[in-house]
From TrEMBL:
It comes from the Bacteria. Pfam families: A_deaminase. The record marks H220 as: Important for catalytic activity. The keyword Zinc applies. Keywords: Hydrolase, Metal-binding, Nucleotide metabolism, Zinc. Substrate binds at D278. This is Adenine deaminase. It catalyses: adenine + H2O + H(+) = hypoxanthine + NH4(+). InterPro entries: A_deaminase_dom (IPR001365), ADE (IPR028892), Ado/ade_deaminase (IPR006330), Metal_Hydrolase (IPR032466). Catalyzes the hydrolytic deamination of adenine to hypoxanthine. Plays an important role in the purine salvage pathway and in nitrogen catabolism. Belongs to the metallo-dependent hydrolases superfamily. Adenosine and AMP deaminases family. Adenine deaminase type 2 subfamily.
Amino acid sequence: MELEAYVRALPKAELHLHIEGTLEPEMMFALARRNGVALPWASVEAVRAAYAFTDLQSFLDLYYAGAAVLVREQDFFELAFAYFERAHADGVVHAELFFDPQTHTARGVALETVLDGLERACVEARARWGIGSRLILCFLRHLSEEEGFATLQQALPHLSRIDGVGLDSSERGHPPAKFARLFARCRELGLHVVAHAGEEGPPAYIVDALDLLKAERIDHGVRCTEDPALVGRLVREQVPLTVCPLSNVKLCVFPDLARHNLGQLFAAGLKVTINSDDPAYFGGYVAKNYVDTARALGLGRAELRRIARNSLEASFVSAAERAPWL
Ligand code: HPA
Ligand code: ZN
């Protein structure tokens, strides 16, 4: 069997996926027209040409500008439905979607509108393809903790629809410590906790995400290798890392896939998973991340099976719920 077909046939969970990062340029322009939103690019080709990022911030500037076309419940539904269709084709049986409410509420879009559209797509994906899903509300770390608390307040009536919280956006200069009280409150409310750390930020941010935020998974985490004691701890505690190889190359965290440290992380015994992050912007959905990484690093099928299994084990579904896929 070809590697692509093998990878697509592996049941897998996607655990690091920003739903706003699945906005393909064609949909961006269609929604801009439908909603009368002006975009800073003249065409689909022009926006694609702008996807030459030099770091995380250069991407985020474009990503937030693109997200401005998402206005109505139907927009969020169509966005997530299109993602689930691609995820299903890639063998995703379960997806835990990040969404950034503050990106939308700042433009006057109600949190409820976002949730209604996303949730309707989750229900539809379950009915059509049997894909399970969860929603993870991410706080933007470039904003204040107080603004995070205001967002949590807006989310309170909808807590039954949200499985957990995360922390994303500009990492450098915005350490986990800035959000310690907010995440403590989220944990009291029974929410799962994850956090981006060690993508561009130092290994100390990974330590603080674990110790101060009590993160159950680390999103990215690739800079852990700069601290051998931390690697030892991550192995001992089997903390899942949601690694996004194509994203890391696009954002210049690694110069190319052949120099990505995923193989090293895996060999060290870390609970590594492979994910797509913002696939519309980074050149590939989850199966392409598996295939390209395997080719670049010489990972075999046994390793890919282990990584897919890790993703299911690291998800927030119960052991009984994931048993059929393992
Ligand atoms: N890192 C931080 N914030 C983000 C990312 C990312 O990779 N994608 C979308 N928001
Ligand atoms: Zn991310």
